[in-house]
Specification:
The protein is α/β, with parallel strands linked by helices. It is built from twelve helices and twelve strands. Helix content is 40%, strand content 21%. A hairpin with a 5-residue loop joins strand 11 and strand 12. The structure holds 3-isopropylmalic acid and magnesium ion (MG).
Amino acid sequence: MTNPSLLILAGDGIGPEVMTEVRKVIDWYGAKRDLAFDVSEDLVGGCAYDAHGTPLTDETMAKAQEADAVLLGAVGGPAYDNLDFSLKPERGLLRLRKEMDLYANLRPAQCFDALADFSSLKADVVGGLDIMIVRELTSGVYFGEPRGIHKEGNERVGVNTQRYTESEIARVARSAFELARKRDNKVCSMEKANVMESGVLWRDVVTEIHAAEYSDVELSHMYADAGAMQLTRWPKQFDVIVTDNLFGDLLSDLAAMLTGSLGMLPSASLGAPMANGRPKALYEPVHGSAPDITGQGKANPIACILSFAMALRYSFDQGEEATRLEQAVEAVLADGLRTADLIGEEGRAPVSTSEMGDAIIAKLDASV
Ligand code: IPM
Ligand code: MG
């Protein structure tokens, strides 16, 4: 049997540094758990633009379509701010999402006990928090046509279009209900049905899918603005939140920060099953390329390592091994190890990116 294939696109900024630590974890699974992967690497984002004049080449796109899973670091940086819109690093990521049709973006917001004090909210509000945002990722205002900037008389007009088809709403709703069944069996759907027709349709379709296929799951609806308020007031009222592309972008950053650090959170972007039964999949940390700390050994590799744990669970059916890795992360945090992003007042010196990776490997070693 051939090994499953992993395409690594480390990208820009701190992407390559955190991915170096993920490579240690991947190698550990090959050596110690008989779970070897065929790993290949390629470019996306600004580094791809530097090498090839485009943020994602057709060759890399084709490799991503073939891979059993794609692992992405981060894209973007100030050096690329003045590039034409179509050449910006982010376009590489958006092309991957669109062409692989990765419609369901899973963004867990989990508060590690050891880090409850890092949240800007009170520890009792966030302690034990474990919610999952399911963001629609391939449609809505990110991709809707018409779009652009044109002239009307003497002034410029910027246009984007929020557009959703029934089937686009239905498939992401199903992903959310399926996940809820494996969790606390609750879904809250968020839109702006009070002002947007696409929101009215969203609410209707989610309600229909629920009644027809998932009436065992508890469903509620909220306007997305009220949802943002409720997320900061009492986030533990939620289990799974399903929402569109743009609201999901905002609400997932908000939820991430509830947990204390953006540097901790992974994500999975999943599409339809491939011929081998695995979903098309891309895994990436929620944090960005962090150009301000690039190359200084300050980056927190945990979000990217936990993204690989999600790959073990959702692409490779290795839920127990995913849990092993998540527990290794919890154990280093419980020991008090902190990268620079997590250093509070106690004055304990931060560990470097690679020290954090090595400590997680040591916990994995201790687990077998
Ligand atoms: C995210 C990011 C992206 C988005 C950017 C980098 C295009 O903010 O993954 O949340 O807006 O989707
Ligand atoms: Mg975002």
